[in-house]
Amino acid sequence: xxxxxxxxxxxxxxxxxGQKEKNGTIYKEHEAIAKVNAMQAAWVAGDSAKVASYLxxxxxxxxxSGTNKDAEGGTKANYAGGAKWWxxxxxxxxxxxxxxxxxxxxxxxxxxxxxxxxxxxxxxHNETGVKIDVPVHRMYRxxxxxxxxxxxxxxxAVYQEIGESFEDRKNGVIYNHHDNINRVRRLIHAIEHGDMxxxxxxxxxxxxxxNLEMEQGKFMNKEEFKTYLExxxxxxxVSSIDxxxxxxxxxxxxRDGKTVQSWWDIRxxxxxxxxxxxMPIMYVHDFNDEGKITRSMAYFSSKWLD
Length: 306
Prior knowledge:
Helices cover 31% and strands 39% of the residues. The protein is an alpha+beta fold. It has two domains: 23-164, Nuclear Transport Factor 2, Chain: A (Roll); 172-305, Nuclear Transport Factor 2, Chain: A. The strands form two sheets. Strands 1, 2, 3, 4, 5, 6 and 7 form a seven-stranded mixed β-sheet that branches. Strands 8, 9, 10, 11, 12, 13 and 14 form a seven-stranded mixed β-sheet that branches. It is elongated, with a radius of gyration of 30 Å. The N and C termini lie far apart (84 Å).
């Protein structure tokens, strides 16, 4: 009996999961897709009248990522008029299918027609210079052959950045003398004198150390950095490392960042041929609250060493 019940249960599950019911048809090419493409092209071109020609009188537009349950949606006039604003205020505006994506038309059994798109919207805000490069997913519903509903889903953080860029905002304090500047100077001059133990003592044990020529996302830990420095010392003699200008310590309000920027001339002699080299370099060192370096970035070109 137990085996019979298990078999019946298994068959029941197979039947439940195996059931399918078509609720319409998906089209890769369709008149509705052509209308959406034409409407979006008119929107990019700033042609409000043409945009409006594809919209139903009952049209509403909603932000699909919004949380306002009482949102009434934008009207046909709002949406069509917005095309002029975007064209006037955003340079290099484009709205094209994301790589590998294309629009779909969904025709449901009840006759309802939707078009969904996956696009990349790009541009540069004229006044603030903020770059716009965001994926946008939109759903368009049709009524009487015209679009009567548009729902847009995309990250809107870039709009916040644009809005905040219209006003001057302080983001911390710049120091020309500070303990963290002192630590960077002691670090650099420890390297100058070949004192690796002292130099490495300024780094946190989990510090990430990289330079401009490393692959994006790659970094060295303290031990790897020590090996890197020792390799440099085996090929070159450091005669002097001299500061250019003066270091800046930036104590940011945003995310409590603590950064020292410094500029140096490294004077080297190549051991293989006694060639004298003066290599400019910029360092960016990020500190934690304990005064240890958590990240560092060196900006230089190794071509100086060739």
